[in-house]
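Fill-in record for Chemotaxis phosphatase CheX-like domain-containing protein.
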Amino acid sequence: MSQQMRSEISEDSELIKQKISDLVRHAAEERIRLHTQLDEFRIVDDDRGFVPGQVLGNQMALILVSGDAIRITLKLHFSLSEIKPLIYAIYGLDSPNDVRDEQAIDFGKELCNLIAGYVVQMLEENGLPVGISLPLCTRGFYEIFADYRPLQKPIIKYCDLWRLQYGETSIYGTAMVEVLNPALLEPLLSYETGSDDSDDSGEFDFL
């Protein structure tokens, strides 16, 4: 293989990685706004020196999106004390103190599910069938056992870390992406994310 061909393959791989990260971030920002009814939520790069594999919250919701071309492990890292002020009104309660821990955990799981579902929707619009797992929630401490080491072969593996911010409230997200077949993902390079139509009526295959 010539140096030029290797350079072109490397460039395409970087473009695919960036596009996938953009899709996941777009889904996260759109769904947190929809789920909390707070349009002020913004997705930002982490500027606090955190790295993937670090404990980022006392709770961690996670879900898997997987197909022949790609596998994405999405995690949301949060503290119950930060989630409760966001959701007490959604549950029709009078104050954050009235929100049970189980309700805050369910919120994190459902948000994770909505984000992943939107990612599935965008992938399938590009002819990339994928399945989606059920969302889980566990202690944030277990993040230290995750393997985020990047790879370029035999598969492309990388992680994107970001933060969903509303005032002083932060929900961290990590997306560990494994590109299994880059050629199948090429249609994504010309795909543009549009405004969210808030349509969650699609059906998904559970893994």
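KEY FINDING: Strands lie at 42-45, 59-67, 70-78, 130-132, 136-139, 156-166, 169-179.
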